[in-house]
């Protein structure tokens, strides 16, 4: 083992030892960005970039497990991505199911696909739904896999679900308007029943949310990392957690 590796591991231990459980987020959201740029930088294919990104998701979840994160939301495929060139989209729709199966095989996590699964090919959508049901009782991290996800679409779906529910009850629009509050809508979000994300990480140097968890992230802390997602390291994650632990959350005040 080289001196550089030993130094790197020692630095990890120092960062980890400085993180008190009380200062860590319960729910971490991650916008995985930079797969294609990583592939281009290393002279390989976009498919290889997305494959490397999938490998990093498995690794990242292990890190979250180690520090005691309860919920992780990983944005794998946006509704905008569904309009990409067919060759790249076909590759993603091959890689994502493989990733899901790898997560299931660990037996460690509740894998919870969220998004417009009806926009995906039927075999993929059906398998994702089966996985959500099959892993629901696992007492581990809840892993929300945002697939065919868009923040505005989620809010529209929540309102549509709320209206349909009250229509079945015979509630008039006037009565609904009178009693409606934010919690009623929150109950119909894809992440209903979960804590909102405390911390949102985005890789590749981009500093925007792009519609990720628009409703839920109202009071989240954000962290933008320069590394492309496939080269995001454990030490980068621990640095992010260190940054989070030093912040004083005001929750809008």
From TrEMBL:
Keyword Magnesium recorded: yes
SUPFAM superfamilies attached to this UniProt entry: Undecaprenyl diphosphate synthase
Gene3D superfamilies linked to this entry: Decaprenyl diphosphate synthase-like
Recorded coiled-coil stretches: none
Record-annotated active site: 33, 81 (proton acceptor)
HAMAP family: ISPT
Record protein name field: Isoprenyl transferase
Organism encoding this protein: Aquipuribacter hungaricus
């Amino acid at each position: 083992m080289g001196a550089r590796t030993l130094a790197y591991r020692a630095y990890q231990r120092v960062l980890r030892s400085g993180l008190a459980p009380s200062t860590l987020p319960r729910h971490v959201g991650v916008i995985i960005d930079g797969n294609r740029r990583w592939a281009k930088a290393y002279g390989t294919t976009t498919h290889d970039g997305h494959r490397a990104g999938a490998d990093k998701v498995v690794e990242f979840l292990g890190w979250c497990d180690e520090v005691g994160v309860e919920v992780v939301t990983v944005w794998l495929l946006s509704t905008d991505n569904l309009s990409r060139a067919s060759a790249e989209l076909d590759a993603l729709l091959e890689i994502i199911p493989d990733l899901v199966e790898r997560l299931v095989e660990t037996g460690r996590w509740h894998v919870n696909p969220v998004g417009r699964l009806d926009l995906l090919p039927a075999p993929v959508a059906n398998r994702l739904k089966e996985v959500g049901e099959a892993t629901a009782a696992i007492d581990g991290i809840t892993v929300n896999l945002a697939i065919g996800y868009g923040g505005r679409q989620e809010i529209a779906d929540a309102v549509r679900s709320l209206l349909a529910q009250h229509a079945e009850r015979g509630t008039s629009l006037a009565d609904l308007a009178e009693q409606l509050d934010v919690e009623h809508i929150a109950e119909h979000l894809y992440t209903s029943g979960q804590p909102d994300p405390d911390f949102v990480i985005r890789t590749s140097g981009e500093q925007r949310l792009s519609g990720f968890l628009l409703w839920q992230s109202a009071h989240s802390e954000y962290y933008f990392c320069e590394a492309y997602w496939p080269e995001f390291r454990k030490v980068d994650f621990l640095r992010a957690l260190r940054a989070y632990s030093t912040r004083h959350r005001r929750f809008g005040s």
